């Protein structure tokens, strides 16, 4: 089977100054995520052809292309949380299948949490990513081991929090999260799907990489790269 593709680029040095979760960061994250999904569109569709409807890459590419249009139509000074909520709504309506509501809800809840955060810092990002996962699980009723988005997002979140709690900088936490998401994707191969279209295949879903988890790893890879450039 093909291994998960997450092109994060080489490791670069970062300053040790304060990192800020601002609208510039949000815009860069969505732009980077859209670029990675475009690069991997065909691969994501191939993964989905094996256990789904063969349209995941196409749908994600269309949705994030629309998200870029949302960025362009938004005011330059729009608060970061509000911008992510708009992006989330765009993804809900423009990404087909189950992925649209799931990823869209994740981004909407990330945005709402950022808007309510007391400070735009690494802790706010942690809270927001946690809310994103909570929203996805609330909507999709998936748990780790079900062969879904959760199997990449949950370990990424755990790694991010663990790094911060051990004194790591935000760029280090983001790198740990991206690596954990990639490992989570690989872990979906031996799983039998228990949610979504793939669950209809029963044991025939074993041995296939989950496309939703793969897209999640791409999002965390994009997050890591943008954090590294701005930390």
Q: How does this model look, in words?
A:
The protein has about 230 residues and is mostly helical. The chain has a single domain (about 25-230), classed as DhaL domain (Serine Threonine Protein Phosphatase 5, Tetratricopeptide repeat, Alpha Horseshoe). It is about 65% helix and about 0% strand. It is built from nine helices and no strands. It has helices at about 25-40, 40-50, 55-75, 80-95, 100-115, 120-140, 150-165, 170-185, 210-230. α2 (about 40-50) packs across α3 (about 55-75), α5 (about 100-115) runs antiparallel to α6 and α8 (about 170-185) packs antiparallel against α9. The longest helix has 20 residues, at about 210-230. It starts with about 20 loop residues before the first helix and ends with a helix.
In sequence order, what are the helices and strands, one letter per element?
Answer: HHHHHHHHH
Described by its quaternary structure, the protein is single chain
Query: What's the name of the CATH homologous superfamily?
Result: DhaL domain
CA-based gyration radius: 16 Å
Give the overall average pLDDT.
92
| CATH architecture level-2 label | Alpha Horseshoe
Helix content: 55-70%
Number of helices: 9
Largest beta-sheet characterization: none
Query: What is the general shape?
Result: globular
Number of domain modules: 1
What is the fold-level CATH name, i.e. the topology?
Answer: Serine Threonine Protein Phosphatase 5, Tetratricopeptide repeat
Task: Indicate the proportion of strand residues.
Answer: under 5%
List segments where confidence is low: pLDDT < 50 over at least 5 consecutive residues: 1-16
Determine the structural class based on helices, strands and strand pairing.
mainly alpha
According to DSSP, the number of beta strands is 0
* Spatial separation of the terminal alpha carbons: 35 Å
Which CATH first-tier class would you pick?
A: Mainly Alpha
